Amino acid sequence: MMDRPRRLRRTPALRAMTQEVQLHPSQFIYPLFVHEREDVTPIATMPGVSRHSVASAVEQAREALSLGIPSVILFGIPDHKDALGTQAYAEEGVIQRATRAIKAQVPGVTVIADTCLCEYTDHGHCGPLCEVPGLSGADAWTVDNDASLTLLAQTAVSQAQAGADVVAPSAMMDGQVAAIRAALDEAGFAHIPVMSYAVKYASAYYGPFRDAAGSAPSVGHRATYQMNPAGGHREALREARLDAEQGADTLMVKPALAYLDVLSLLRREFDLPVVAYNVSGEYALVKAAAQAGYMDERRTVLETLTGMRRAGADAIITYHALDAARWLQEEQVRL
């Protein structure tokens, strides 16, 4: 007797009934860029994505929730930047104001605050800079790790005070999760989870984000603190294990698409939720190909996000969130 797997692929209902991997809007986290202006400014390198005012960010959060997307992650773009990124932890910083507005007007949305300094420093790095003795050129400057911990902890507490439901440290400083966890607990925010960017690579896929946030480094590079793309599985496991031991509540892999093996590895090795970040460059590549007529955007996006789920992601940060949620709703209607 011939085996006939095709029997279960014959109709949409049969395919849906037998699929192992489910993709649903509740698994999406929608990223929002918020600036201090009153306008909405399209980002040229990320078609369909804009820098939002606080009021517009509220409406975007409302739209996301109406589509079944329960969470947003906020990235702030201040008018004033300085060497210490002081607007990251200012009481009236743009993310603090946006968080308060969203929680007041769309209380059902979970607000995740990106906890980093690169959008707020005038040099574009994730903490205060220091010189590296004996080196020259791009390698002569790096981030002062331990000085950054104090500022990152201060930023996380400020975000929690503004009403953030989750803080997400992304600076890749050694010990940042422990410092933030201790500061949150001491300030009375023991209930606030830490979503750690545990495995974050020095990737070329961040280019459009740096354009959107104005966070391209003016000196040096991030390879001294973000992970080596060729570092391998041992480095990824070490970084994730350190964050888990320091009190991280979830672990993130960033970028996702080129590192699905790492995502799958974390899913096997840890019992914490794993988040995939479908980053700006991955988004821009699909958009560019779709606009040129080379690919079907809808099918490509849903296939990519399904691949991240199949690799083990419990949640996905994606700029495609609103469109993907609409497409999934339409597929349900057709069934």
From TrEMBL:
<dbReference type="Pfam" id="PF00490">
    <property type="entry name" value="ALAD"/>
</dbReference>
<feature type="binding site">
    <location>
        <position position="126"/>
    </location>
    <ligand>
        <name>Zn(2+)</name>
    </ligand>
</feature>
<comment type="pathway">
    <text>Porphyrin-containing compound metabolism; protoporphyrin-IX biosynthesis; coproporphyrinogen-III from 5-aminolevulinate: step 1/4.</text>
</comment>
<dbReference type="InterPro" id="IPR013785">
    <property type="entry name" value="Aldolase_TIM"/>
</dbReference>
<feature type="binding site">
    <location>
        <position position="210"/>
    </location>
    <ligand>
        <name>5-aminolevulinate 1</name>
    </ligand>
</feature>
<feature type="binding site">
    <location>
        <position position="222"/>
    </location>
    <ligand>
        <name>5-aminolevulinate 1</name>
    </ligand>
</feature>
<keyword id="KW-0350">Heme biosynthesis</keyword>
<keyword id="KW-0627">Porphyrin biosynthesis</keyword>
<dbReference type="InterPro" id="IPR030656">
    <property type="entry name" value="ALAD_AS"/>
</dbReference>
<feature type="binding site">
    <location>
        <position position="280"/>
    </location>
    <ligand>
        <name>5-aminolevulinate 2</name>
    </ligand>
</feature>
<keyword id="KW-0862">Zinc</keyword>
<dbReference type="GO" id="GO:0004655">
    <property type="term" value="F:porphobilinogen synthase activity"/>
</dbReference>
<feature type="binding site">
    <location>
        <position position="239"/>
    </location>
    <ligand>
        <name>Mg(2+)</name>
    </ligand>
</feature>
<feature type="active site" description="Schiff-base intermediate with substrate">
    <location>
        <position position="200"/>
    </location>
</feature>
<protein>
    <recommendedName>
        <fullName>Delta-aminolevulinic acid dehydratase</fullName>
        <ecNumber>4.2.1.24</ecNumber>
    </recommendedName>
</protein>
<keyword id="KW-0479">Metal-binding</keyword>
<dbReference type="GO" id="GO:0005829">
    <property type="term" value="C:cytosol"/>
</dbReference>
<keyword id="KW-0460">Magnesium</keyword>
<comment type="subunit">
    <text>Homooctamer.</text>
</comment>
<feature type="binding site">
    <location>
        <position position="118"/>
    </location>
    <ligand>
        <name>Zn(2+)</name>
    </ligand>
</feature>
<comment type="similarity">
    <text>Belongs to the ALAD family.</text>
</comment>
<keyword id="KW-0456">Lyase</keyword>
<feature type="binding site">
    <location>
        <position position="319"/>
    </location>
    <ligand>
        <name>5-aminolevulinate 2</name>
    </ligand>
</feature>
<dbReference type="InterPro" id="IPR001731">
    <property type="entry name" value="ALAD"/>
</dbReference>
<feature type="active site" description="Schiff-base intermediate with substrate">
    <location>
        <position position="254"/>
    </location>
</feature>
<dbReference type="GO" id="GO:0008270">
    <property type="term" value="F:zinc ion binding"/>
</dbReference>
<dbReference type="GO" id="GO:0006782">
    <property type="term" value="P:protoporphyrinogen IX biosynthetic process"/>
</dbReference>
<feature type="binding site">
    <location>
        <position position="116"/>
    </location>
    <ligand>
        <name>Zn(2+)</name>
    </ligand>
</feature>
